[in-house]
């Protein structure tokens, strides 16, 4: 990550020492920087590339191949891990907060075979995935002038603590659901 995080000169939130306009989204949330090397290296199934994740989520593109995600009259296709306790969420997946972009049908089959996180996958169609907020980490200034990081979490857009948040993934709320 080039540049380092610091506290803004007016102490109103986070900034990069060498911040550029592209470091923040349209709602002024600061985004984590990540290296770019398309076509190089091996996939890291534990982490999503923040720029790619945000681009595919906003444009409803397949998270695997980058092509158009599958869409029917029932909505866009998402591949989700079934919750451990279905009894605790009778309306699942309605209202689910999701960081995983949609998929195309061929890549859904590929992901089910290769992704170690999908132990009990469910394909679901959502007619109205609504941009909800971001996933990442909070930071707070320390008395010594540094920054302390806090556990990762989701933050809705418009939250008053957004100036102290470093986003790494876009979050959508999935509504008008149909299990495929």
Q: Helix proportion of residues, in percent?
A: 10-25%
Could you give the order of the helices and strands? EEEHEEEHEEE
Number of helices: 2
Basic shape: globular
Secondary structure elements and pairings:
Blueprint: E1 5-7, E2 14-16, E3 30-31, H1 50-59, E4 71-72, E5 75-81, E6 96-98, H2 105-114, E7 121-141, E8 147-156, E9 165-179
Parallel strand pairs: 3-9
Antiparallel strand pairs: 1-2, 4-5, 5-7, 6-9, 7-8, 7-9
Structure description:
There is one protein chain. This protein is mainly beta and 180 residues long. The chain has one domain. The protein is 11% helix and 37% strand. The protein contains 2 helices and 9 strands; from the N terminus they run βββαβββαβββ. Strands 3, 4, 5, 6, 7, 8 and 9 form a 7-stranded mixed β-sheet that branches. Strands 1-2 form a two-stranded antiparallel sheet. The protein is globular and about 50 Å long. The chain starts with a strand and ends with a strand. 29% of the residues are buried.
Quick rundown:
This protein has 180 residues and is mainly beta. It has helices at 50-59, 105-114, and strands at residues 5-7, 14-16, 30-31, 71-72, 75-81, 96-98, 121-141, 147-156, 165-179.
């Amino acid at each position: 990550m080039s540049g380092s995080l610091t506290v803004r000169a007016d102490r109103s939130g986070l900034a990069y020492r060498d911040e550029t306009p592209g470091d923040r989204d349209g709602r002024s949330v600061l985004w984590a920087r990540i290296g770019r090397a398309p076509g190089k290296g091996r996939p890291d199934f534990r982490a999503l590339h923040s720029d790619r994740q945000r681009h595919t989520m906003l444009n409803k593109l397949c998270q695997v191949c980058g092509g158009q995600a599958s869409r029917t009259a029932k909505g866009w296709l998402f591949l989700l891990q079934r919750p451990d306790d279905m009894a605790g969420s009778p309306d699942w997946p309605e209202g689910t907060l999701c960081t995983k972009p949609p998929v195309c049908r061929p890549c859904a089959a590929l992901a089910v075979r290769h992704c170690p996180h999908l132990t009990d996958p469910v394909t679901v169609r959502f007619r109205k995935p609504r941009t909800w907020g971001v996933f990442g980490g909070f930071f707070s200034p320390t008395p010594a002038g540094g920054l302390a990081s806090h556990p990762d979490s989701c933050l809705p857009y418009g939250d008053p603590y957004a100036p102290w948040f470093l986003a790494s993934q876009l979050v959508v709320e999935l509504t008008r659901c149909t299990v495929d």
